[in-house]
Design brief:
CATH class: Mainly Beta
Structural class: mainly beta
CATH topology: Lipocalin
CATH superfamily: OMPT-like
Number of domains: 1
Distance between the termini: 43 Å
Strand order of the largest sheet: 1-4-5-7-8-9-10-11-12-13
Largest sheet: 10 strands, antiparallel, barrel
Shape: elongated
Strand content: over 45%
Length: 263
């Protein structure tokens, strides 16, 4: 049963300016270096198999396993698109999840209240600007600066038996947080085909702290790369933060598998 609730404030107007312009112009995996005169584009799609964990502001544990996510998944998108020229690149990572649980669950011992339907929609978008500071035969390193945006919307429906009324009642809540981030990303070349991609960023803003780290292994084919990695993404909240009334911390962690095209 998914009972994760979002209690954040409404979206700030400037977030739309960032996300609309950068939503589909980057990717989380490392792209090869192009010449100064050439544009290089990458697109990727991946499957992240995480669990969602954390602690509510009231001290309760949040623990949604990957099996539960799959069982209740209506729709998801995890992918990216990127653009790079010379040492400069624009990047973003886009995750969308729509989870729904329609199993009836009693909310009181006498059965007057039944939780009929729970739906959670979430966007996680991380746009960033990168600059290559080191490039050698075996190693590439980029510094990055950008933002991480989290939006969550929850809806739940409760059925009531007489004498309670109305017979059905729906509750809805939504909100967002936006943080600035800085970090590094790159890869270590092992052979002509094998390499080790890595990424780390950290930041703050609407939350007390957010950070992300992943590392993995990639294999280059003629027209695409296959990548397997482990990814950890976390937010930590103070009481005064947006979302602090709902969460102490929230993190998403698990293995990730993807394919990347460069053109």
């Amino acid at each position: 049963m998914i009972k994760l609730k979002s209690a954040f404030l409404k979206l700030r107007g400037f977030a739309f300016l960032i996300l609309t312009g950068l939503l589909f112009i980057a990717q989380p995996a490392v792209a090869a270096t192009g010449t100064a005169a050439d544009w290089q584009f990458t697109t990727s799609a991946y499957m992240w198999a995480p669990s969602i964990e954390g602690e509510s502001a009231a001290g309760g544990d949040i623990d949604i396993s990957f099996d539960t996510i799959i069982e209740n998944l209506d729709l998801t998108f995890m992918g990216s698109f990127g653009a790079r020229k010379g040492k400069w690149g624009f990047q973003t990572d886009v995750i969308y999840m729509d989870l729904e649980d329609d199993d009836n669950a009693p909310l009181d011992p006498l059965g007057f209240l039944t939780l009929d339907d729970v739906e959670l929609k979430a966007w996680i978008v991380t746009p960033m600007l990168t600059y290559e500071v080191l490039q050698s035969e075996r190693f590439q390193l980029n510094v990055l600066a950008g933002a991480r945006y989290l939006y969550m919307k929850s809806d739940l429906t409760i059925d009531k038996k007489p004498p309670l009324s109305p017979p059905t009642e729906t509750f809805s809540d939504d909100g967002d947080v936006l943080d600035g981030i800085v970090g590094v990303k790159g890869h270590v070349t092992l052979t002509r085909n094998w390499y080790l991609p890595f990424h780390f960023d950290v930041g703050s803003g609407d939350t007390d702290l957010t950070w992300q780290a992943y590392g993995g292994v990639g294999y280059k084919f003629k027209n695409f790369d296959l990548i397997a990695a482990y990814r950890h993404l976390r937010w930590e909240f103070d009481d005064d933060d947006k979302g602090g009334a709902t969460f102490n911390d929230l993190y998403i962690t698990g293995p990730m598998f993807g394919v990347k095209f460069v053109f």
